[in-house]
Amino acid sequence: MKKATLLFVTLFLGVSGSAVAADDGAIKRGAAKAFYCTDCHGYNGVGTATNSELAGKNSSELEKTLIASKKGKSSMKKTLLDKFSDSDLQEIAAYFGSLKKTGRGEVSYARDIDPIINIRCAECHSSEGEGKHVSGLDLTNYDGLMKGTNQGGKMITPGSAIGSSFMVMVTRKDHLRMPFGKSPLADDEIRAIRSWIDQGAKNN
Description:
55% of the residues lie in helices and 0% in strands. It is mainly α.
């Protein structure tokens, strides 16, 4: 379930418009395989404390690195890469190369958060949605998310995921958990949103 949700997000909304025009097919095929990399390199390849970022890397250079690692000495990375043909690795590199580049470990609203919210939340929290009608919370854009609800005000406290009611609503365990009446956000999605808020909830 976690992997399937991540795949859906990255496949359809995780790529930039210019890159899609360049080679839409290769990027989409790469997105369908790229989630194998995110356990080590972070959501959408943002990078972690111990592993480099992949998002926004030069696709040709990344392809060369992946193929060289596959042909190198025995390692955990080689074992994973052995699952893929050189063509697969080319498409994976094309996908990560198409993404918006940020600093290592930095989550991007445009690249990582907006796609999650658009897929999982905006159906209800848009101009015609019940969630927008009831609470006033518009999740179709950054400004609406940061404005919050008519009743309780701000849902996001920049720099503090633990102090943000948005995080409470998407992680609570009772029937009021959001998205209402639908499957919960995947762990990868929760981690991305939490990191984005803790990093200042920037419109980046």
